[in-house]
Write a structure and sequence with these properties.
Elements (H helix, E strand, L loop, with lengths): L44 H15 L2 H13 L7 H12 L2 H9 L1 H24 L15 E2 H12 L2 H32 L11 H49 L1 H21 L2 E2 L2 E2 L1 E2 L1 H27 L20 E7 L4 H5 L4 H17 L3 E8 L7 H10 L6 H8 L6 H8 L3 E6 L8 H4 L4 E4 L17 H13 L7 E7 L24 H7 L3 H4 L3 H26 L4 E7 L5 H4 L6 E8 L2 H5 L7 E2 L9 E3 L3 H8 L7
Keywords: Membrane, Transmembrane, Transmembrane helix
InterPro entries: Alkaline_phosphatase_core_sf
Protein name: Sulfatase-like hydrolase/transferase
């Protein structure tokens, strides 16, 4: 640090002391009584000189700074260090009230200055080193040397004051943006098993808001939204202020900063070349640069994928198949395609959930056998994980891999044949959808080939919501029986049913009741009040697994009990999970497999899929085949006699 920045420059001992100035012959008369306190001046002459010297120091070349530092080191009466100098300069620039406080409490002022500067440095380093995956959050990650900090310091030191300020603000805002995106990545990885897509995923915020309203009420959702907005603003503001503060510190002490930057750069290069690691982590870090490059690559890949998928979606092996050549072996059957929310492989295999779920599957297999039904089960790999159920539904029904929102928009805007649409095309089935999770207009019903869609507003439910789920599964099936399945018809029925009681946060969970007591759903008032609170379950790693398992047991029980009670010899049920539950339940390394089962009273229906090597009953074995979910449509259509016509 140049000695010109000291409030009291030390004398040069090698020079002859200057002569004392001669005093005037007569001194001005002083007032007899001086005021008790003189008004505080904005700055002392010493401070003004210090400011002028500081400005000159900022514009001086690096060599001059080094020389000045050398002179300072040789001085015998240095009375302040870098922190004290920083405090003095900040005092000179502060408002009068602040200057007065700092003058009265210099020790406390230095402590505050050092603390604020340290916090700014910690915040910037945290942003530069922050990982975007939950399992990478560990102390060693934050004990690395980021190359971005070294490069940024070098750039800021050589810029003039105005340009330095602008650059520091822009750098801070950029770090704020990266921090927010990393936080989004953490959330998406936790819930959906993937990072945030800056091109496609903005639309999901509206779904998140709706989910919060459904789970916490409107007031709670508004509170969360306000808190999130405030957090984002705070991140941007604090990051910008932190970088500006550090940039000014570098400029005031450019000599020392230059040497420190050169040393840090040398250490980074050496550690990078030698592959030095600390606690299993590379010490020489370039996290932010890598994250930026990764996001750029993802944007480019997304835009390229949209164009390529548009071409893929136009190809369809059954696009021109005549109606009489579609599913001829299921003529006269009432076919139900049912999705159970979050019914994943972990429900059957996780040590916490498996005992209850497996016992339910065994029990319901026995109930089906007793009623004259049989079942076969296998595995499908879903295109989504933890959420975005509509991607799983569309993948299963369209025969296309719908792994993101762009693909979903593309396929639903086209005319690609769906599994449900194949039944409609024949003209031999009435096709309906039971969608208790849909709470507004759903134009996709036309794409899926459904003659009529019953959403949550049209099912006649008068009971309470169960967290996100608008109604219990048993009620949705009871309404299906009342509105469609139980009526006299001149055609068999093909139905798509979405069951939602196993949707997170898995509390409260409904209870199975006698079918003749379901009524309009009012009976669920007491059941809902007696259930567990989501806040008591969702954040407990053991309880959330237990309640997730119970929700799957409830959904499977409701569905199979419905078939046993209301099905007949022409009933064919295909049911599956749409995706695995989030990582908190299924685990960080969980696969994306979900169970699928086909249930039928007519033995010939299951004979058609003997070649699939599926497991008998409702619980697939570990050795059962695992197929990608998009392959099911063509396998099913082919198994039941459909003739391909590309």
């Amino acid at each position: 640090m140049s000695s010109t920045t000291n409030s009291h420059p030390s004398p040069d001992l090698d020079r002859t002391p200057p002569k004392e100035p001669e005093l005037p012959e007569t001194a001005p008369e002083l007032p007899e009584t001086a005021p008790e306190t003189a008004p505080e001046a904005d700055s002392t002459p010493t401070e003004a000189a210090s400011d002028a010297d500081t400005a000159a120091d900022e514009n001086a070349p690096v060599g001059a700074d080094a020389a000045a530092d050398a002179d300072q080191d040789a001085s015998a009466d240095v009375t302040t260090d870098a922190d004290a100098s920083l405090g003095a300069e900040e005092t000179a620039e502060a408002p009068p009230a602040v200057r007065g406080w700092r003058a009265k409490h210099p020790g406390a002022a230095r402590s505050v200055t050092c603390t604020v500067t340290s916090l700014a440095a910690v915040l910037v380093l945290f942003a530069l080193l922050m990982p975007n995956e939950p399992d990478r959050f560990r102390p060693a990650v934050f004990l690395r040397l980021p190359v971005e900090a070294i490069f940024g310091a070098a750039v800021l030191m050589v810029l003039p004051k105005t340009l330095r300020l602008i650059t520091a603000v822009l750098a801070g805002l950029s770090l704020g943006a990266m921090t927010v995106l990393n936080l989004l990545d953490l959330g998406f990885n936790e819930f959906l098993g993937r990072g945030f897509n800056v091109v496609l995923d903005w639309v999901l915020f509206d779904d998140a808001r709706t989910y919060l309203e459904d789970s916490m009420g409107k007031a709670g959702a508004v509170g969360v939204v306000i808190a999130v907005i405030a957090l984002v603003i705070a991140v941007f503001a604090l990051m910008a202020l932190s970088v500006v503060r550090l940039a000014n510190l570098l400029a005031r002490h450019s000599g020392r900063a230059t040497r420190a930057t050169l040393v840090a750069g040398t250490v980074w290069v050496a550690c990078s070349a030698l592959g030095v690691q600390f606690a299993g982590v590379q010490f020489a870090a370039r996290s932010t640069a890598g994250a930026v490059q990764n996001r750029v690559d993802r944007v480019q890949a997304t835009l390229k994928d949209e164009a390529e998928f548009a071409k893929i979606a136009k190809k369809d092996a059954f696009a021109k198949t005549p109606p009489d050549q579609l599913v001829p072996d299921l003529r006269g059957k009432d076919v139900i395609f049912a999705f159970i929310e979050s019914y994943g492989r972990s429900a059957i295999e996780d040590p916490v959930t498996a005992p209850g779920v497996d016992a339910t599957l065994d029990d319901k297999t026995a109930a089906l056998t007793k009623a004259g039904y049989a079942a076969r089960s296998g595995w499908l790999t879903s295109a989504t994980y933890g959420g975005s159920s509509w991607l799983g539904h569309s993948t299963f029904l369209s025969g296309l891999w719908i792994s993101n929102q762009a693909r979903y928009r593309t396929v639903t805007a086209g005319e690609h044949l769906t599994l449900t649409g194949a039944f409609q095309r024949t003209g031999d089935w009435r096709t309906v959808g039971i969608m208790p999770g849909v709470q507004k207009n759903w134009p996709e019903g036309k794409f899926y080939g459904l003659d009529n869609v019953y959403d949550s507003r049209e099912l006649g439910y008068k009971g309470p919501k169960f967290s996100w789920s608008t109604m219990p599964d048993q009620y949705a099936l009871s309404a299906y029986q009342r509105l469609e399945h139980g009526k006299k018809r001149d055609k068999p029925l093909m139905s798509e049913i979405i069951l939602t009681s196993s949707h997170q946060p898995w509390a409260p969970i409904p209870k199975t009741i006698p079918w003749d007591e379901v009524g309009d759903g009012s009976v669920y008032e007491d059941i809902q009040k007696d259930g567990k609170k989501a806040s008591d379950v969702f954040y407990d790693s053991t309880k959330v697994k237990e309640e997730y398992g119970r929700s799957i047991e409830y959904s499977v029980t409701s569905l199979i009990d419905y078939v046993v009670k209301y099905g007949d010899k022409n009933t064919v049920l295909v049911f599956l999970g749409d995706h695995q539950p989030l990582a908190r339940v299924s685990g960080d390394d969980a696969d994306r497999d979900v169970p699928i089962s086909i249930v039928a009273h007519d033995k010939s229906v299951l004979d058609r899929i003997d070649g699939w090597n599926w497991t008998e009953g409702l619980k697939p074995d570990d050795t059962a085949p695992v197929w990608r979910m998009d392959s099911f449509r063509d396998r099913f259509l082919t198994a039941y006699g459909s003739t391909p016509h590309p």
